[in-house]
Amino acid sequence: MTRSTGGADIGVYGLGTMGSALAMNLADKGFRVAVSNREADWIADFLTEAEPLAEQMVGEADLAAFVSAIARPRSILFMIPSGAPMDSMIAAITPFLEEGDTLIDGGNADFNDTRRRSQAFEGTGFHFVGMGVSGGEEGARHGPSMMVGGTAHSWTALRPMVEAIAARFQGEPCVDHLGPDGAGHFVKTVHNGIEYADMQMIAEVYGLLRDAGEQEAGAIGALFESWQAGPLSSYLIEVSAAALQTVDAQTGQPIVDVILDQAGQKGTGRWTLIEALKMGQSASTIEAAVGARGWSSEKPLRVAAEPLLPSGTVGTDLPSADDLERALLAGRILGHAQGFRILSAASEEFAWSLDLARISEIWRAGCIIRSSLLDDLAEAFRGDLPMGQLILAPRIIALLETCIPSLRRVVAVGASTGVALPALSAALAWYDSIRRGRGSANMIQAQRDFFGAHGFARVDAEGKHHGDWPALT
Ligand SMILES: NC(=O)C1=CN([C@@H]2O[C@H](COP(=O)(O)OP(=O)(O)OC[C@H]3O[C@@H](n4cnc5c(N)ncnc54)[C@H](OP(=O)(O)O)[C@@H]3O)[C@@H](O)[C@H]2O)C=CC1
Ligand SMILES: O=C(CO)[C@H](O)[C@H](O)COP(=O)(O)O
């Protein structure tokens, strides 16, 4: 199986969808790659499939031989499931490492695990990198966006390779060293939270057109396709348009009509929320998207409830196509604003000094959430940013002025027709919360003091105060 020894520039362990594609991308860019996989039989199959690039690869089933095949100091990239499998692989490979070697976890890992592993590596002479990779199989093969967290030493070793294989936006590689330990995986997690929100809002518009508008999948797909020429232009709209216009070979129906309405999830959306809540951040659009995937899994309950619970009104006029397009743009802006606020809070919490402009820039190509909006966000972050808030950047305010009225109209139609638009509605409520100088939390404080003597601050005096509340009979 071995085709050459000792001189590989990098090792890739885990030849599933992502690992195979990244190994081929690296070989395509002229790097020599050692590859290995838990299921050893797959190594030979992969090398056969990788021809002619296999000439630059060496396959080793044995871990010691795999490590030996890589030139020192070694860079070893793991593309395997997060959590326990990664811990087991670290334990298994560490005995074969030497001073200066770096292990890279390129999977979707919980950044808390990455921080723990990075700390465990401190003082060992080995290095640990948590690297978020986005772009799916196609991106991994031809140019992903990558978010690197780890030591400066590891970045120096890794940089030429990841810059060579990354997607490019106007010639610039969509990869950067974002900070130490868990910074890269945290940014990837929030990327996925934004991805969940964007996917959900697109699905909501599809649902509104299908259920309130009784439109066929192909027609909705054609509408989405037309939006690719405007400000909504993005990979996710492109994918959705193409999926809606794809016909199932078995039935001749639109394929989306035969796909069960239960969405999978592997954890990154939920992690985004958990970390947001820990830092006191509201990420209501992302929460709605995670919650909607949860509702999707409760199919039997939904089927049972449909004939029992009162519905919305029929016959309401649908929003115009322009309104739907602008509502989605507003939702996308607000979903990103929530994500970037979480990144900003984490940057402070963990002293990462995250460069939010740079993060927007490396998301402009290669990754799943790439969109023309990210170019606007990158420029907004590089320009005047009142109170450090993306949503207050003049460029973003100008965009919101054009699309918030549409979001209001679309949410109103969803409410009256009884078509659930949880992420779009949450985005609008989040927007209306942030722009309201005097909110309604004075009522919460009155309730808390009434039942629990928690005290409240007054608008006209310093200090903590209590109400002279009446006794309830
Ligand atoms: N698919 C995607 O679009 C993206 C995936 N990711 C992340 O990349 C990582 C890999 O995903 P993907 O390539 O899609 O997954 P696949 O299921 O296609 O491949 C998984 C790989 O991990 C190996 N593996 C599974 N369990 C273990 C274990 N316990 N110990 C060692 N190796 C193991 C498998 O080996 P074997 O062949 O023996 O089963 C296989 O090589 C995941 O963390 C995922 O979240 C990140 C971005 C995008
Ligand atoms: O990281 C990714 C894209 O950026 C992966 O495709 C990930 O699996 C998506 O998350 P989920 O499976 O929970 O939808």
TrEMBL record:
Pathway: Carbohydrate degradation; pentose phosphate pathway; D-ribulose 5-phosphate from D-glucose 6-phosphate (oxidative stage): step 3/3
Gene3D superfamilies: 6-Phosphogluconate Dehydrogenase, domain 3, N-(1-d-carboxylethyl)-l-norvaline Dehydrogenase, domain 2, NAD(P)-binding Rossmann-like Domain
Keyword NADP in annotation: yes
EC annotation from Swiss-Prot or TrEMBL: 1.1.1.44
Keywords for the protein's UniProt record, in alphabetical order: Gluconate utilization, NADP, Oxidoreductase, Pentose shunt
Cross-referenced PROSITE patterns: 6PGD
InterPro entries referenced in this protein's UniProt entry, alphabetically: 6-PGluconate_DH-like_C_sf (IPR008927), 6PGD_dom2 (IPR013328), 6PGDH_C (IPR006114), 6PGDH_Gnd/GntZ (IPR006113), 6PGDH_NADP-bd (IPR006115), 6PGdom_BS (IPR006184), NAD(P)-bd_dom_sf (IPR036291), Pgluconate_DH (IPR006183)
Function, as annotated: Catalyzes the oxidative decarboxylation of 6-phosphogluconate to ribulose 5-phosphate and CO(2), with concomitant reduction of NADP to NADPH.
NCBIfam families with a match to the protein in the record: gnd, PRK09287.1
Family: Belongs to the 6-phosphogluconate dehydrogenase family.
Subunit structure: Homodimer.
Protein's recorded name: 6-phosphogluconate dehydrogenase, decarboxylating
